[in-house]
């Protein structure tokens, strides 16, 4: 083979490699498209976002400039969460074209959304009646270093493997503050429980250092089951979060099935009322400050400065300020609580006592 032939062959190889590279680049450029390139530009026009998952539908609605969750009677939603979702949607880019066959959609979870489908989720973004963006989010691709999901736009045959995170589908706490209050049991002095269907009872501690509550009255022939069981009610308002919220209008005409009043050593009073509404148990909580019920610290107690030391650090907020803050949170709302909190609230006197065993054998 002479040098001229070698040069021609080499040129053909280089040209072929260049052509293959350009072809690959072109294909990649075609496949790597942004699903919703114009979404950020119209973000201020969005007033409704529906997120439908197999378990439930969550509808975020803007009313008079404020965002709320429709299924929770308009309970406030974090604006940051809305912005995060819009940004995530606008950053979705196709990685690879997948099936166009409807019979294969279910395999990757991009079948038309129907409530109860195991894998598919539908996100719709609207301005009034105008749909701005809509996508069916299927299964997440396993063993992928970066977040990738199978997706398909409703009404289109082509499905895609899409890169980008969508982390608000299941995590409701990213969208709203689900904390109600946090009152440690060590702070609680007294609890009065008045169920509609059974006898009232009272739990109390004589001092903040007491680890357990005393139960009264104890029926004749009975004794407390255990100090731990009796004292568990003291933690009802500890790190209290809700599973769902609703407007207080839902309990306007209802009578509480249970009422609990909790008083702390520093005069915080919490009134907790439970209602049964359409097979739901809803809890209303109100706070107040009773200075006359506050227990003054001992002169020689921990709150007194030790000679030669600095004064104790002042509290960050007074009880009256705390009450105002907590009432601003609960005002207008009732809550469905986690099951373990509902079990605590639902305890009756019969649950806390047992017959005294006969010691004469």
Rg is 31 Å
Please give the share of residues in helix: 10-25%
Number of helices: 7
Straight-line distance between termini: 115 Å
Beta-strand percentage range: 25-35%
Strand order in the sheet with the most strands? 4-3-2-1-6-7-8-9-5
Write down the secondary-structure element order: HEEEEHEHEEEEEEEEEHEEEEEHEHHE
Q: Number of DSSP strands? A: 21
Would you write up a description of this structure?
The protein is of the alpha+beta class. The protein has seven helices and 21 strands. A hairpin with a 5-residue loop joins strand 11 and strand 12 (201-204). The longest helix has 29 residues, at 3-31. The chain is elongated. It starts with a helix and ends in a 6-residue tail after the last strand.
Summarize the structure.
It contains 7 helices and 21 strands. The chain is an alpha+beta fold and 361 residues long.
Task: Indicate the topology.
Blueprint: H1 3-31, E1 48-52, E2 57-63, E3 66-69, E4 75-76, H2 79-90, E5 93-97, H3 102-108, E6 121-127, E7 130-140, E8 148-152, E9 159-163, E10 179-181, E11 188-195, E12 201-204, E13 214-216, E14 222-224, H4 227-231, E15 240-241, E16 244-247, E17 258-264, E18 268-277, E19 280-289, H5 319-330, E20 333-336, H6 339-345, H7 349-352, E21 353-355
